[in-house]
Amino acid sequence: MSHDSPEFDLIARHFTRPAANAVLGVGDDCALVDVTNGMDLAVSVDTLVSGTHFFPDVDPENLGHKSLAVNLSDMAAMGAMPYWAMLALTLPSVDHDWLSAFAKGFFDLADEFNVSLIGGDTTRGPLTLTVTIMGEVPAGAALKRNGAKVGNDVWISGNIGDAALAIAHRHGKLVLEESDYHEAVMRLYEPIPRVRLGQGLRGLATSAIDVSDGLLADLGHICRLSGVGATVDFTKIPLSEIGLRHIESGAGRTAVVAGGDDYELCFTAHPNSRELIAELASVLGVPLTRIGQVKRGKGVSLLGPDGKPLKIDGRGFDHFSSGA
Ligand code: ADP
Ligand code: MG
How far is the CA of 37 from the centre of ligand 2 (A)? Predict the structure, then answer.
């Protein structure tokens, strides 16, 4: 790539910022970072494809936020401290207005978490965004998916379902009031990654995952990897006011238990940790709700108000399942 090529111009204009916490940022063949002694390097990558992960008419600033937020959420779920991001951009054409709005959404969120963009790649093709995130976690202290134990509580942060309700509205499966739709769609496009919560849960949570594919599906991953089962009390699942207005409908229930994109943290913890978890919730100002129990066996069952299993359509978003 020569210095006067459009790609170079694009990178220089939109994606070159000082990388305060890196040895070397954008511009060379590799970026260089200095990893702290005694820390494990935590690395994750996520791809967003137009039409699959976002509506093609999405506001580019929201998309810039989301492309980084979903990666920060993986750091959160691991209890890691994010530092460095790489951005692989595939664009159908070069539209500087679009790019500067995208970069604004990306860097506003990056600045909030002191994350530096240290490199990437720029290619032409159908709109696709791939972000790699790197961070650090004290050696051995990461929150993994495989540590849930029988008798643990199941917890969830914030409230869930709004992002999926916005999607259900867009697909005509239910109808949200206009102001509810605007609020719910912001949960979809501007999720707040629970990075501080993830770090606060080190030493408290026995396992953790971020809810990207749906509560039942994601808790199911914890169960499978931990060799346990779990129950979730449907009536304990924390909902927003929008969620409360739609929970009685079939599509509303499905959105809450099987809809993804909330990026809240679902985690398990020993019952002895309840007080410390409540303290953490109040220090961070993030509601943490106990919604179920880890059990012997396999899979997640959803319990109704009478304690009997509830059946809900759809178990979460699975890109390769034929029935999804
Ligand atoms: P190479 O030819 O080695 O692949 P590139 O020409 O793709 O290098 O990129 C030049 C520099 O710009 C590299 O440091 C790369 O990390 C960075 N870069 C490329 N695209 C992006 C982007 N979308 N965002 C941030 N940095 C980028
Ligand atoms: Mg390249």
Answer: 30
Pairing relationship of beta strands 39-49 and 116-124 according to DSSP bridges:
unpaired
Other residues' Cβ atoms within 10 Å of the Cβ of residue 126: 11
Which of 1, 8, 11 has most ligand 1 atoms within 8 Å of CB, for mutation? Answer: 11
pLDDT band at 158 (very low <50, low <70, confident <90, very high): very high
State both tokens at 13: 């204009």
| Nearest-CA residue for atom 14 of ligand 1 | 27
**What CA–CA distance (Å, rounded) separates 136 from 122?**
26
How far is the CA of 130 from the CAs of 50, 61, 155, 197, in angstroms? Answer: 11, 16, 30, 25
Alpha helices in the chain (DSSP H): 6-10, 60-78, 96-112, 162-170, 178-189, 195-200, 215-226, 241-246, 250-258, 274-284
Give the CA dihedral 110, 87, 71, 199, nearest 10 degrees: -50
CA of 99 to the centre of ligand 1 (A): 15
Distance CA 165, CA 180 (A): 10
* Closest-approaching ligand to the CA atom of 87: 1
Whether 9 contacts 2, CB under 8 Å: no
Distances from the Cα of 262 to the Cα of 39, 151, 239, 294, angstroms? 29, 26, 12, 22
Residue with tokens 């890109």, as numbered in its chain: 319
Tokens at 184, concatenated: 């719910």
Q: 205 pairs with which residues across the strands?
A: 269
Whether the full predicted model's pTM is greater than 0.85, yes or no, is yes
Protein residues with CB under 6 Å of any ligand 1 atom: 1, 11, 15, 26-29, 87, 89, 117, 119-122
- The pLDDT assigned to 311 comes to 78
* Dist CA 141 CA 208 (whole Å): 12
In this predicted structure, the answer to whether residue 240 has a pLDDT above a threshold of 90 is yes
